[in-house]
Amino acid sequence: MHNDTILLAQLNPIVGDIEYNYNKALEYLKKAKEKNIKLVVYPELYLLGYPPIDIIERYPLIVEENIKYLEKFAQQCSDIAVLMGFCEFNKQKRGKKYFNSVAYINNGKIEKIMRKSLLPTYSEFSEGRYFEPANFKSQDRIINFNSLKAGIIICEENWNDGDFFQKPLYNFDPLEILVKEQHPDFIINLSASPTRTKKEQLLNNLLSHCAKKYSTPILYVNQTGSTDCITFSGTSRAYDKDGKLVARAKSYAEDFFEVTYPLSEKNRIEPLPKGVEKTLNSQKEFSLDYEPDLERTYLTITNAIKDYFNKNGFKRAVLGLSGGLDSSSCAVLLADAIGKENVIGISMPSKITSAQSKNDAKELAVNLGINFYEIPIKDMTDASSNTFNKVFDEINSAWGEYRYKAPLTFDNIQARSRAMILWGVSNEFSSTLPIATSDKSELYMGYATINGDMSGGFAPICDVTKTKLFALARWMNNNRKIKNAIPEAILLKPPGAELAINPKTGKPLLAEEALMPYEFLDEVIWRLENLQQKAQEMLEEKFLYEKRHNLTREQKKQWLEKFAARVQFAQFKWSIMPPGPIVDSRSIIRAEYIQPITSKLKF
Amino acid sequence: MHNDTILLAQLNPIVGDIEYNYNKALEYLKKAKEKNIKLVVYPELYLLGYPPIDIIERYPLIVEENIKYLEKFAQQCSDIAVLMGFCEFNKQKRGKKYFNSVAYINNGKIEKIMRKSLLPTYSEFSEGRYFEPANFKSQDRIINFNSLKAGIIICEENWNDGDFFQKPLYNFDPLEILVKEQHPDFIINLSASPTRTKKEQLLNNLLSHCAKKYSTPILYVNQTGSTDCITFSGTSRAYDKDGKLVARAKSYAEDFFEVTYPLSEKNRIEPLPKGVEKTLNSQKEFSLDYEPDLERTYLTITNAIKDYFNKNGFKRAVLGLSGGLDSSSCAVLLADAIGKENVIGISMPSKITSAQSKNDAKELAVNLGINFYEIPIKDMTDASSNTFNKVFDEINSAWGEYRYKAPLTFDNIQARSRAMILWGVSNEFSSTLPIATSDKSELYMGYATINGDMSGGFAPICDVTKTKLFALARWMNNNRKIKNAIPEAILLKPPGAELAINPKTGKPLLAEEALMPYEFLDEVIWRLENLQQKAQEMLEEKFLYEKRHNLTREQKKQWLEKFAARVQFAQFKWSIMPPGPIVDSRSIIRAEYIQPITSKLKF
Q: Per the confidence metrics, is the pTM higher than 0.90?
């Protein structure tokens, strides 16, 4: 029996920065040589960085560079074998410009090139836009490594098992063909597979299932780090021929991850984010028990912020602190991602802002140790209101009949004045990015102000619903080094934008008064995204909210109709949201979901 | 010989509004019956509306509805045959959820269903995201119509000719297979094919080539109207077996278009937009002669505005009028698209605004007959400046070392105050949308203010470069009913944002001083988008600008480097641009081109 060590190089590339990616790869290669490792495996498309989306369409020089550096890399490999993901020109007479390929480098030469046959083109994946799907021939997928036969599989080619999935997306299963025709000793899977709620469970079950089904071990290497909205957790791993997990790399970090073959318990198994193991059974109904996903959510968002800032040359963040849940949670996430000294929170009270809100904002900032300033916006809102009144009086002559005279117009001046200050800070201080603090529930409802709270360079919580955000805030209070950074008062008060007064109560209008209870709203979103349910089905099925509160059918119907109408209207707001991390199992983030604004929804 | 009339139903559907689309189809059907027409052909995916993008992923009820209405429609067709584009559920065990299908309805029944085999997934097309590509079997594509054999082709299946295209995108050619195996009497092509610069030339040459090559007439039906960024010109047509154009429907309008078979010169041939015929040879180099494309550009933008407003329930538009080219051109396009009474232009002068600019803005508004108001923004900018100064003094203690103290911060207050007023008008008056007036050249350079001139609900000229916009403005001045709406002074003055003073001249900073000459910039954009050229290639090749002006190699190199740096930085601005019509042969509009913000360009 052999005793070989394979290195799974779990790295964090930058899309298009070939030299950077090359240098990182080289670092690991040198270390691997020192340790006498015989095979190093890099993730899918590693040299180019994943996902390239359309830049390789307009900038073919990037692809030329990745070829050049691949050849340069091969020259460093006279005494070590390497599997390297890269982008290849398609020189055939027909088809798309490129292949998503893997080079097998041996004896300092590119010995074999393997081309991906199944190209994910859905949700956050758009490989069908620029890659040509290759014909899958199993003999091309075998490499001989120290008299072992390894079968090579590229990401999506592993996600097509007819027993595991109810309706696989493609009409053939590369893994099945490879195993049945070539009988490899083990499988190596090169991936770039993003994180999501429940994804770890799916990945684990799938790989375990396939290893066991074919009685063939699987080694899986994944990239880590973030590109805009998409975050990769890393978490490379190995399953033995019985489908048992025998090795697992770090999550949300680069990892020089050695796996010894034959696979045994001597390999390193790093922990998953706390709680994620508990999500190993698929969630069949909506639940407010977010606990098992909170550390993963926290790590996804903080890593997404960190990489968005680092990779794009931003260093500092500025955000408005209202004393509410959304901005407070964003402040904590930012402080942890880029350092408290690099965050400025500004309280920008208007006449509606309560003393309590101002105090809460300040207390949060002090607890976090971020920079904090309080600037009343009265002069700005007064000047704008006066100017607006002049404008509207003039327009009245032409369009008076269409005038709402609703307080909304003047309410929004507050949100927009605040965003103006944040962008001013961004203009005045180098490498400083304003933060959009809208959450997912409110975005669904279009309950966010354009050029106001919706405005910023990055939107950390745009894929976190309100009920989950409450849980995340509590989790952060309990699990960060400095406990209870978010004052209890913020967690107890019902959410509200503090832009308007509710005439019925004489107090600031609460979000749930303007919309519907968040617990109900979040279940509608969950059912729509996860089950693609229709309103009629939702009406018939019992919501968690109904188990906990009285709810008439008429009221439920009204809320569902309100949801439909508001979502229809919210489309044009979604189209101008800044990027933010995909966290949930489904999102409305444009990197994943594209809806024509001009369309009629029916649900 | 037969003498049959076929109706090409060139219609403008609304995506997802099945009932609306059905009722329109029915109207044409009734009229066709009255005229004793035997076959009616509707465009690709007509019942659903094209492009659905992702809504059918989340809202399967829309697809259920389109099936229901298809069946209802079939019941109306006891005495007439119909080809109808619709979306079908894929009930097979593997594959994507849906097929892009065509139903052949005969004797009141759905007699045959044909499924699209080639699914465009590039640029503005994303069919691979949700449709399963069908196996192409030629026998399934024949319908017998009055003892004639018609072969049915769906859009992209016609765009894959190995003689016509240098590198066809797919590895088989459905049209070739259909003709060679089935010998149809003629081909019917159901399409949803958007307009672009040079597209008419491409389409005409391709269809003519195929008809001639196979000695088989081709009838082509296309939809019309716009969905967000994408506009369909209609222009359905027929080519005889010699490849000669013998029938052509209207452009940019619905058309009840009868074609008589056998094809002869008796058929109706509507004119193309003026000049388009002249573009029948592919443009090999950059040119400032935009004339042949200006009416098409004008029609594309005005139709896009009209449909964006009508289909989304907007009625009125408000925009800032600076007296410059961008806002003036937008005002003309808006007035023509939605009616002058529905447009408000607001001049919002600051201390930098010249008397000339104010006069020009007013004169334009008077010429157009739109509503016009002048509102100085001094109170707003003063209040903001004062507040900013307080904020910055405070922040100075923490981040003073990172402070720019560049005038940009305060310059931008002007643009943002103006956008605030426009959004205020939108909040206060029903169904009113603010307009973003940025042009393509400036967007490439990131020379647009976030929450300022870049902000709005629709961006009419975001795919028109500055040099082309000058030509378009002159064209509108010459070709609209009311001549010279745009004052000559606006066409003569060099562009500038009038936000800043150039310290060298003491006058408002001109855009070309801040950037580079537009003539040069627009050629760089053209070469990048059309030829995917690298900077090195551009450096070596002679630009039009170099034929007309002196330009040192050093200066050219500097401009190219500046271009690369600014485009890299502009990415995050592109991501929050509102939708606007795709006009050019390539665009940076997100409906077509997706670039990761987090990426390193190399060109």
A: yes
